[in-house]
Amino acid sequence: MKKHRMPDMKEGNVNVTPLIDIVMCLIIFYMLVARIGVDMGVRQNINLPDSKVGKKLNDPGNTIVLNVERAGEAVLVFVKNPETSQMENLDPTRLIPLLRKARGANKDFKAVIRANLDIDYRFIEPVLVACSQANLKEYQFEARKP
Amino acid sequence: MTPLVDVVMVILIFLMLTGTFAGATHYLQANMPPVGKAATVDPGGGPARIEIRVQGNSDQMFAYVGNSPAISDEDRLFSTLKALGDSLKGQGKKPEDIQVIIFPGKFVKYQTLVRVYGSAIRAELPKIAFGNAH
User: Fold this and answer.
1) Which among A49, A111, B55, B116 is least buried, having the fewest CB atoms inside 10 angstroms?
2) CA pair distance B78, B86, nearest whole angstrom
3) Residue-range domains of chain A with CATH
4) Model-level pTM?
5) What is the mean pLDDT of residues A55-74?
6) How far away is chain B from the Cα of A5, in angstroms, using its nearest Cα?
7) Could you give all domains of chain B from N- to C-terminal order, each with its CATH number?
8) Closest-approach residue (CA) in chain B for A115
9) Beta carbons of B64 and B72 less than 8 angstroms apart
10) Cα R_g (chain A), whole angstroms
């Protein structure tokens, strides 16, 4: 019976052109889609509520993120100060001057409110009042897609 | 060719590890409520107003649209709001002239509010605000 032998190995280069094509496509995809180094002051420990409806955030440059958290019977708002770029935790009354300063003369300035799904409305209301007193025309609630 | 592949791979791994994608969340827009008006629905030419009072806890929701009985189901709330909105639109109101104001109880959970809010949006009533807690 005739034995089949493996073909001899030949010295040569591996054709990497298809690999480079695919990798380049992936790089272009990531560069277009991924957001790198965009820190809006989002706290990741917040468990957002679910919502079937919602819109995309169109204008992140005109937006300040307010992370509302319960601290015992008080409420704290974690916010990135636009002047110092540092995260600060403020009570809602101290939030008003910061919001006024951040808003300036920009009428389209808005706040994004992030809060835990099980927080009571009594902890969110002072933040809405602060937004109102800082003359913000609108605010948006961030919710998770189900 | 090998250095090019090395550099490209490094860039690819960097982008894969550091990039975050938009799309896991979305946003519910609310406007500041108009002050000094108390009517539930203005039958005249001015902007109409629909008030929703909300009570409940993390498990149950009780919503009252105007003087309606308690609604504990999200779909029923949607159909009630849709009927009310359609009736106002039939009277010549534009959707942006219909102001929905949600008055939550102090102990109503945020998730419940988002559900009420979602029902109003689904009922094609885009102008929504939050009132004082009761």
Assistant:
1) B55
2) 12
3) 60-141 (3.30.420.270)
4) 0.74
5) 84
6) 32
7) 48-130 (3.30.420.270)
8) B110
9) no
10) 25
